[in-house]
Structures are given as structure tokens and as C-alpha cells.
Amino acid sequence: MTCEEACPLIHGYADGELDLARSVEVERHLAGCAACTATLREIRVMRSALRSGALTFDAPMALRARIHDAIRDARRTQRASRRAAAIRFTSALRPPLYWATGIAAAAVFIIIVLVGGLRRSASSADDIVGSEIVASHVRSLMANHLADVVSTNQHTVKPWFDGKIDFAPTVEDFAARGFPLAGGRLDYADGRPVAALVYHRREHIINLFTWPITDDRDSAPRLEQRQGYNLVHWHKGGMAYWAVSNLNGAELMSFAGLVRGDRAPVTPRG
């Protein structure tokens, strides 16, 4: 693939919109082209900036203040209009009352639109990351690059990451519960280097991706399907977790419970 062929595809590759075959072709080109690699890096930096918490999820304080002021003023106008109407016993003040009611309704509508937009933005971000996770999982199987460090010992796998990423991932072996540790590797997701831990469940392979996030709120595991694979993702302790496998959803959710340290997780027999 030449630069002319790769250039129109780099945006789609960065957004996880290419099919697997195209993604592999672009990756091969990027491995030997510094110019296209620099372009990809710029795209990811820009995307990361656009998806920052202050820009994507939180309405500006000034906008919030204007909405609150509009609601307060509308309520005051309503009360004044009603008092005037009661005193004058006339319909002359009905238009201002309707006008005030319209302002209140408009303010409520703006709030609904803002909240809905923020929720859609968060959902869209998860969709992008989910596509990246599935693509990374498939590449690890196709390229025979499942692990950089192959070991069933968590005390071997965890130190291997020292100095390679800017955080220390939690590494545990769940062999006693039917999910033995197989190793780990460096990977890339959500615009940054991440840790990928590899586990087995019978003949199935589970890739567990983890990295730190700015949102320290915990979230419950959520199961979804993409391209025939099951994904479970959650937040805990300031870290994002994504588990992906062709394992059935019930067992993958059980694995997520083990990783989270949930009390007495149920592991299906088999």
C-alpha cells in the first residue's frame, strides 16, 4: 500500500471504522512510513483533546448559570402575572403569562437536550473504544502476538510492565476459578498505551485491557456484543477495564466479577 492509498484511510483507521482486512493493510503501511505514522499521531492527539472530560461531558458553568437564571426569571414572571391577573380580573395579562410559560418550557427543553447530548457523547466514546478493543483482540490472534511476556505467574507478568507504561496494572491469576493467567502484552486503545492481560477459559482466550482514567466513579460491568465477540466493560478505582472473548456472555461476566473482586462471584462449571 502506498501513501496515496493509505492517506484517505488513516482517519477511518483511527476511528475504528475500517474492516479487519483494511486495518491490517494500513498497519503494515504505518510500520514502514514515518509520515503516515505522524499523521495518525496527530489525529489521535486531536481526538483525545476533543474527548476530554471538560469538553465532552460537562456543560460550561456559564451555560448552566444562564439556564438556571432563565428558569428563575420565568417562575418570577409567572407569579407576577398570576397576581396581576387576580387583582385586575382581566385577560389583558394573559400573553405575558403564556410568554413566561414558554420561557420555562424552553429552558426545560434546553436542559433535556444538553443532558441527552452528553449521554450520547459518552455512549459514542464507548462505541469507539469498543471497536478498538475488538480490533486489537482479533489482531492479537491473527498476528500470533498474543503475549509479550508468557507466564502463569502474576509476580512475573506484573513486573514486566514496569517502565513500559505509566501505571501499574493489577494482575491476578484465577486458575483456581477456571480462568488461568497466560501472560500479558502492551497494546493501544483510547488514544494511549494500555496493558493487555491474557487469560484462558478452556479453549477460549480472554483479553483484558486496562488503563487509568480521570473519572474515579465506579460503574457496574456492562455486557455487549460486537462482530460476534462478547465484551464486558466497567470502571473501578480510577481504572477502565474491557474484557473481550468469544466465550459466552455468562462466563465472561463471571470473569469480570473475579477481576472486580466481587464477593462470591459465580463461575459456571465446565
List descriptors.
270 residues; alpha+beta; Phosphorylase Kinase, domain 1; 8 helices; extended; disordered C terminus
Q: Could you characterize what this model shows?
A:
The chain has a seven-stranded antiparallel sheet with strand order 1-2-3-4-7-6-5, sandwiched between helices. It contains eight helices and seven strands; from the N terminus they run ααααααβαββββββα. Residues 264-270 have low confidence and may be disordered. The chain folds into three domains: 3-50, no CATH class; 56-145; 146-260, MucB/RseB, C-terminal domain (Phosphorylase Kinase, domain 1), CATH 3.30.200. The chain is of the alpha+beta class and 270 residues long. Helices cover 53% and strands 20% of the residues. The protein is extended, with a radius of gyration of 26 Å.
**Looking at this structure, what is the CATH superfamily of the largest domain?**
MucB/RseB, C-terminal domain
Name the helix and strand elements from N-terminus to C-terminus, one letter apiece.
HHHHHHEHEEEEEEH
Q: How many DSSP H or I helices?
A: 8
Domain module tally: 3
Topology:
Blueprint: H1 3-14, H2 20-32, H3 34-50, H4 53-56, H5 61-88, H6 94-142, E1 149-150, H7 154-160, E2 181-189, E3 192-201, E4 204-212, E5 219-226, E6 229-236, E7 239-245, H8 249-260
Antiparallel strand pairs: 1-2, 2-3, 3-4, 4-7, 5-6, 6-7
